[in-house]
Design a protein that fits this description.
single chain, alpha/beta, L-arginine/glycine Amidinotransferase, Chain A, 3-stranded mixed sheet
Length: about 250
């Protein structure tokens, strides 16, 4: 059974980092309820929830995915590009130490887990404002020891690589072509988001099911037509913090 590391929505979430969207009021109580339902969806697709200790004073701490890249053999503890987020990694490392050997991205490198998309033994890494060339180089050195290939992918207009493209099946991606060139990710089947739903490329594949934001019904229908089995969740308050369904958990197989 895969583990899903999650972290509570902090009361300070309204002070979160924002890069590509405007700031709007976040209803903390509603965000907490949505996060609880998200955890239920993780259980529904076969995960066991493991709680990383809450961090009330770290506004982005609910987005635990950004703090590590978990491979079969090792977990790479990241160094977030946003300085305000660098305190988030300590608790994640303490939890992951029970499940993986640990290595870390060190200064001056920066890397956020939302920029790393694993497809088999290839790690596609977004060249975003949060993950710099030094961080990508360090990830390459750590991953290459275990037979992974790291491929840098240019981005435009979005926060992380997984804002623009994610897996919905082992051989299929959902992509926003305005933000990333799907052809750079190899020979995969491609489902494009509906143009009216630019944030719909963020989906979480666990086993043979996909957790997907309820707000993006048109793209959801495109995925369903391809046979993708979807667990729909409302993450509208978390989306105001530039978050999605991948970044609220770290999956440990």
């Amino acid at each position: 059974m895969p583990l899903a590391l999650t972290r509570a929505v902090p009361p300070s979430i309204s002070q979160c980092e924002l890069t590509h969207i405007g700031r709007h009021p976040i209803d903390h109580a509603r965000a907490v309820a949505q996060h609880r339902n998200y955890e239920r969806a993780l259980v529904a697709v076969g995960c066991q929830i493991v709680a990383v200790p809450a961090a009330p004073d770290l506004p982005d701490s609910v987005f635990v995915e950004d703090t590590a890249v978990v491979l079969d053999e090792v977990a790479v503890i990241t160094r977030p590009g946003a300085a305000s987020r660098r305190g988030e990694t300590v608790a994640t490392a303490e939890v992951l130490a029970a499940h993986r050997a640990l290595v870390a991205i060190e200064t001056p490198g920066t890397l956020e887990g939302g920029d790393v998309l694993r497809v088999g033994r290839r790690l596609f890494v977004g060249a975003s404002s949060r993950s710099n060339p030094d961080g990508l180089g360090q990830l390459d050195r750590h991953a290459r020891r275990f037979g992974y290939e790291v491929v840098t992918v240019p981005l435009r207009g979005c926060l992380h690589l997984k804002s623009a493209v994610t897996l919905v099946a082992p051989d299929t991606i959902v992509v926003n072509p305005a933000w990333v060139d799907a052809g750079l990710l190899g020979d995969l089947h491609v489902v494009e988001v509906d143009a009216r739903e630019p944030f719909a490329a963020n989906a979480l594949l666990v086993g043979d099911r996909v957790i997907f934001p309820a707000a993006h019904a048109r793209t959801r229908d495109r995925l369903a037509a391809r046979g993708v089995v979807i667990e729909s969740v409302d993450v509208s308050e978390l989306a105001k913090a530039e978050g999605g369904v991948t970044c609220c958990s770290l999956i440990v197989e």
